[in-house]
Specification:
- By secondary structure, the chain is an alpha+beta fold.
- It is built from 21 helices and 13 strands.
- A three-stranded antiparallel beta sheet has the order 11-12-13, with no helix packed on it. Strands 1-2 form a two-stranded antiparallel ribbon.
- A hairpin with a 2-residue loop joins β1 and β2.
- α2 packs antiparallel against α6 and α9 runs parallel beside α14.
- The longest helix has 29 residues, at 145-173.
């Protein structure tokens, strides 16, 4: 791979954002065979495998790309009791995205700025690699039919990746696809490898989607008769079909969306049966899962959310996340324990510890167990699963009025997710709402929700938009300093990102930042005072004692803390709140 990089004389764009569309020299003369291009494809067009490493007790994130999409939707809630769960300052890093700021690179105080163009750069870096490969692949010699198929595979994978990157970019930086938005700005298109001396301008949303479909049609033609090289880390025809289904769904071409979703299910229909799992089972999302079609990049999200979970070195329980599952997402699992995903996708647990944060209940991600150190097998963003094909097909069929097909497909998916999946009798808008809710549950924290919320807002049938509130808490060494609330309104313009500041500054021809300024409101910071902790400890002991003596909880325990050291102190309320919570936990934790 190093040899290939030197051959192409890469002018690495990560050090110069101004060259995001002008990356390579023109020297292709030293490419010796299609295998050289295959190495370049794997090493420079596919995303690197991101991971978290530990170096001298420091937690480092390597190759962290496209993480921001998880923090903009309604799936995560920042943990407000302590920042000890965010080893890498993840709440500070994601502040601008999580609270939908006009300038996403600015910190909460507005006195420092981080780069906004990392994802933009890696996407165009990979696109330019794809352009180089496509310009050179047809010139490579093949001695037999087997080698011709290898060339075809390389070409097909390259078209697939270019389509995937442009599709991702236009859904971050362009308006959601609709008849009204087709002519609105999308992102710049470049499909040639040579340097062009010109100022780039924005292509329209429609032009970008047209290019995406063109690439996918070519990928379809190239990969139809080839064999996948390394499942699931290289794309195959099934991945092409699933991405086509997704693109057509976003374009509201229901017939094509259904057609390609059904092609996926013809090729690969397997689903993981949650009824066969146990709570000791490891990650649900793995490369060996019967649902896995394609995966690119790593899974940094799970470990960014929580790495401290379990008993600490003193034997005390410790669970300190940076973000928990939001109330919106928890509420979506409205069938409770009947829905097995409340055990294997998300789960309820005790958060806090004996030092940084008082104990409380909360929900965490379990699809991939971030607190278990080591390599994660699949991506947190570019993971393709058969479950999506079921949901794409059901949604498209419902919009087409083929409700029997929609109900049948959705029921089959739910059979693998529920203890009792019940008969589906909904119709019309109620059926569409059920399918959308099922999608929210099934694909949670896999990079779909933000895009789904955008496309629902412009859907011709049953348009939907919602208000989302996120929080940001500033911490000092003593704990929470302040918490502010930020609200994304229905059909808010901030559902679309502004182009990165570095890109706008370099090329004014690409447009200005029209994202609105985001204001905040003050909310009481979640506190963890000494008085609360002492109250909790006293209440917990009292709860255990009352449970052991057979006393039933009747709420009449306030006299137990009236005589405390805080009786005449301003901290009495904190002590009382801690005592009440500790008392209830003591009752619940007593083993009869």
């Amino acid at each position: 791979m190093k040899k290939i990089l030197s051959i192409f004389c890469l002018a690495l764009l990560l050090g110069a954002c101004s060259d995001f569309l002008e990356e390579y020299s023109q020297d292709l003369s030293k490419v010796e065979s299609y295998t050289d291009l295959d190495e370049l494809l794997l090493g420079d067009a596919y995303l690197p495998v991101g991971r978290i490493t530990i170096e001298k007790s420091n937690f480092l994130r390597e190759d962290s790309y496209f993480q921001t999409i998880h923090y903009m939707s309604d799936e995560l809630l920042n943990f407000q009791l302590t920042d000890q769960g965010g080893y890498y300052g993840i709440q500070e890093e994601m502040f601008g995205y999580h609270t939908w700021q006009q300038e996403v690179g600015l910190n909460a105080e507005g006195n420092s700025r981080s780069a906004e163009d990392a994802d933009w750069n890696i996407a165009y870096h990979s696109i330019n690699t794809c352009n180089m490969i496509l310009d050179a692949i047809d010139e490579q010699h093949a001695e037999n039919e087997e080698q011709e198929l290898e060339k075809s595979r390389i070409k097909g994978e390259t078209h697939f990746l270019r389509a995937l990157y442009y599709f991702t970019l236009v859904n971050l930086y362009g308006q959601p696809y609709s008849e009204t938005n087709r002519t609105s700005p999308g992102v710049p298109l470049k499909t040639t490898s040579y340097v062009e001396d010109k100022e780039y301008t924005m292509n329209t949303v429609d032009e970008v989607y047209t290019q995406v479909l063109k690439d996918l049609d070519l990928a379809d033609t190239c990969l139809i008769n080839t064999t996948i090289k390394n499942h699931p880390y290289r794309a195959d025809i099934t991945a092409v079909y699933l991405l086509k289904s997704r693109v057509y769904l976003y374009m509201q071409n229901w017939g094509k969306a259904l057609e390609y979703a059904q092609k996926v299910m013809t090729k690969k229909k397997n689903l993981l049966d949650l009824n066969t799992l146990t709570t000791e089972t490891g990650d649900v999302l793995t490369k060996s899962s019967p649902e896995t079609i394609f995966s690119m990049g790593g899974h940094l999200l799970a470990s960014s959310l929580i790495m401290q979970y379990g008993e600490n070195s003193w034997g005390d329980w410790q669970a300190l996340p940076s973000y928990t599952i939001s109330d919106d997402l928890v509420a979506a699992f409205d069938e409770g324990e009947n829905d097995l995903r409340t055990q294997y996708y998300i789960f309820k647990t005790t958060l806090g510890d004996n030092f940084y944060a008082s104990y409380t209940d909360g929900w965490l991600l379990r699809k991939v167990r971030g607190w278990e150190y080591g390599y994660k097998e699949v991506s947190d963003n570019f993971l393709f699963r058969t479950a999506e094909a079921y949901l794409n097909a059901a949604e498209a069929a419902a919009y087409l009025g083929d409700e029997g097909t929609a109900r049948s497909i959705l029921k089959e998916l739910r059979d693998y997710r529920m203890i009792d999946s019940r008969s589906i009798t909904e119709s019309g808008e109620s059926l569409v709402t059920l399918i959308r809710s099922e999608r929210q549950r099934e694909l949670c924290l896999e990079g779909h929700r933000w895009f789904d919320l955008r496309r629902y807002s412009v859907c011709e049938k049953y348009p939907y938009s919602k208000t989302i509130t996120h929080y940001y808490t500033s911490f000092t060494w003593d704990g929470p300093e302040y918490t502010k609330a930020y609200t994304l309104q229905i059909n808010d313009p901030a559902y679309t990102l502004a182009l990165p500041k570095e890109v706008r500054d370099f090329q004014n021809s690409l447009g200005a930042n029209n994202r609105p300024v985001r204001t905040s409101t003050d909310v009481p910071a979640a506190s963890k005072s000494e008085a609360y902790n002492k109250g909790y400890a006293a209440g917990y002991a009292a709860g255990l004692a009352d449970a052991a003596n057979g006393m039933e909880y009747d709420g009449a325990f306030y006299d137990d803390y009236d005589d405390s050291e805080y009786e005449t102190s301003s901290d009495l309320q904190d002590y009382g709140d801690g005592f009440e919570k500790g008392y209830e936990d003591g009752l619940n934790d007593y083993e009869y």
